[in-house]
Amino acid sequence: MSADTVQTLIDDLGALLLFTMILIVAAGQIYRAIYAVAAQSLLIAIAGGILAISTGNPDLWVIAGITLGVKAITLPWVLHWVVRRMDVRREIEPVIPIAATLALAVLIVVVSFQLSASLGPVRQAITGNALPVGIALTLTGVLVMATRKTALTQMVGLFASENGIFFTAMAVTQGMPLIIEIGVILDVILAALVMTIMVLRVRSTVDADIADLDRLRG
Amino acid sequence: MTAETLLWVLPLVPTLTALVMLTTGDRRILSAIDVGSSAILAGLALLLAREVAAGGPRALGVLRIDDLGLVFLLLLVVLTLAVSIYTVGWLRQAVAVGNMKAESIRLYFALVHLFVATMVVTVLADNLGVLWIAMEGTTITSAVLVGYHGHHHGLEAAWKYIIVTTIGISFGLFGTVLIYAAAAASQGSAGPGAMSWSAIMQVAPTLDPGIVRIGFIFVVVGYGTKAGLAPMHLWLPDAHSQAPTPVSALLSGILIKCALLGIIRFQTIAAAAAGPAFPAGVLLVFGLISVVVATPFILAQHDIKRLLGYHSVEHVGIVALGLGFGGPVGTYGALLHVVNHGVTKALAFFAAGTAIARYGSRDMRVIRGLLGVAPFGATFLMLAALSLAGVPPFSIFVSELMVLRAGIGGGHWVAIGIFLAMVVVIFAGLLHHAGAMAFGEPTATASREPEARSPLVGMALLAAIMILLGLTIPATIDEPLRRATEIIVD
């Protein structure tokens, strides 16, 4: 694969990633957000595969495989299981209207591209538009977490946010060291596990959503 | 044992202890292992300190110790030891009144030691990726501890803590990736070595300043969340107030300092790549916001542990100000303040914890006349409050003065003005709160049992260090501080 082809492919995947992010922001039901974040992780795994072929770095295959197994399949499946188990009838419950969140998301994308356009020389170290797309995904993920009141949607926002970091990290020349990537993914899994236990525990003791508790103030 | 092996033995000690803890359920045996393991950890750290003083920085694989890391490591092991001693008596009381379930204390101890192990790794990490992984590890282990009491206030605080800090430090990871990208471009080669702080420092002047600036801002927001810098401090008062008291002391005394160490590591890279003025300016802004935001909450607070939590926000802000003013005086002052605040705040949480147990309430309007029912505990509480407020001759006064002098030397008049105004207001507020708790007629509901011995020993250890550091700075602490300052300033 020539460098130009790789760059085009990464840019196309970046566009698709931004599209899945909009699906997450616009999702009215928790299931849709979970499917969208799973699709997003799948795209990241494909990007890993493409970069592995183009750079000839076998580590990237491992990272792509782990991303596929953990973030595209296992974590969405766990979220799905929790939703069914808790029998969540509630919708997403945005703090501000979804249309307003979408407008903010668009603003974030524009600002991210502006910001990285100002960084001339650095962009050579990162393939294609992976830097602005990564920044946009990370910030939009935070936006989702800040504007949703249910715990599971907050977790979806967290995963989306981390996808942005992974995308940029893969596209850095030669990728991150394998051992570090594995450590990071291990942390993600453990954090998701602890969060899931907390959500279920609160649900079983006070029958409320953990993100909805607001007794602690001042 | 060589110093290099010691680097790897240090995090292994608490990890193995955590595993051993799971094999028994007896409270006395668990407490004995707890204190023993912390004492061993402290001994090994002192051994390492001697090696570093004699032969300079040591590294093996992804771990490395230099004088900067050493300052934080020594604070960590001393506080861990004090916490272990305090826990003996605290736990006996907590189990007796049903705050802790006897059958699950082995899990509690195991988690505490895993938490300590992850903190040791953050302090020793040379590879910036390992630093991040360990930092997220501290979040996961301590989040479970924050919600350990299991009531829904605790779980609410734990949820807020894990969500806010996880999202926060994913910003830190992004910043790390950006700076790694810049370094990989400069070094022309990747691999695990390309991510290590010492390797990046070698090429730091050649890094692209644009990306380093953006990376540094991401890192300050990220690790700053964990350090409790405002406006990312939202998790801190909840987590500090809801966690079991020994865990509060660990969170406030060490954990937020470990995050500061992460920021300092990146500050040195950013200063070399983009000039010292840029990182200094960023830290100055966050430091001022923290000091200003914390003040009204300290004045209006009724919950004693929340008060101490907000107070940590203020002091982390002062450390950031010291680093921001920069120069040898400001940096030395900031590092000394890290040590002083760690020791004093842990003491304050200990004293508050025993008072809370005695009155059965965290409300400072209920805690009255402590001096009448628990003279030793009340004395320690007053000592900690006086020191926290910045009264001479206590240690915090000394480091605050250094930070102030660095600010005046640098001509930061606006920052100094705001800083002084806030410190004076907090001084008055804190002494008012502490005086009301210590003096007066004891509340009728207060327990009049004699004071437990082990918490007093833990407090006495910290109080002694606090008073000593106020009167003089011994050479064993002064020399690492000086050399650490040189690492940051040069």
How would you describe this structure to a colleague?
The complex is a heterodimer of chains A (218) and B (490). By secondary structure, chain A is an all-alpha fold. Chain A has one domain. Helices cover 76% and strands 0% of the residues of chain A. Chain A has seven helices and no strands. Chain A has helices at 3-26, 30-55, 58-86, 98-117, 130-146, 151-171, 178-206. Chain A starts with a helix and ends in a 12-residue tail after the last helix. The mean pLDDT of chain A is 86. Chain B has 490 residues and is mostly helical. Chain B has one domain (3-489). Chain B has helices spanning 3-21, 27-55, 67-97, 105-124, 128-146, 152-187, 197-203, 209-227, 236-242, 245-274, 277-300, 304-325, 327-359, 370-373, 375-389, 395-410, 413-438, 453-471, 475-489; strands at residues 58-60, 63-65. A two-stranded antiparallel ribbon of chain B has the order 1-2. The relative contact order of chain B is 0.10. The chains are: A mainly alpha (218), B mainly alpha (490). Chains A and B meet through helix 5, helix 6 and helix 7 of A and helix 5, helix 6, helix 8 and helix 9 of B.
At a glance:
The complex is a heterodimer of chains A (218) and B (490). Chain A has 218 residues and is mainly α. Helices cover 76% and strands 0% of the residues of chain A.
Descriptive labels:
heterodimer, A: 218 residues, mainly alpha, 76% helix, globular, B: 490 residues, two-stranded antiparallel sheet, 80% helix
Oligomeric composition of the shown chains: heterodimer
The Rg value of chain B, from CA coordinates, equals: 21 Å
Largest interface: A-B, 54 and 54 residues
Number of domains of chain A: 1
Helical amount among residues of chain A, as a percent range? over 70%
Specify the biggest β-sheet of chain A: none
Strand segment count of chain A: 0
- State the shape of chain B: globular
**Largest beta-sheet characterization of chain B:** 2 strands, antiparallel
Round the Cα radius of gyration of chain A to an integer and report it.
18 Å
What are the secondary-structure elements of chain A, in order, as H or E? HHHHHHH
Strand order of the largest sheet of chain B: 1-2
Count of alpha and pi helical runs of chain A: 7
N-end to C-end Cα span of chain A: 58 Å
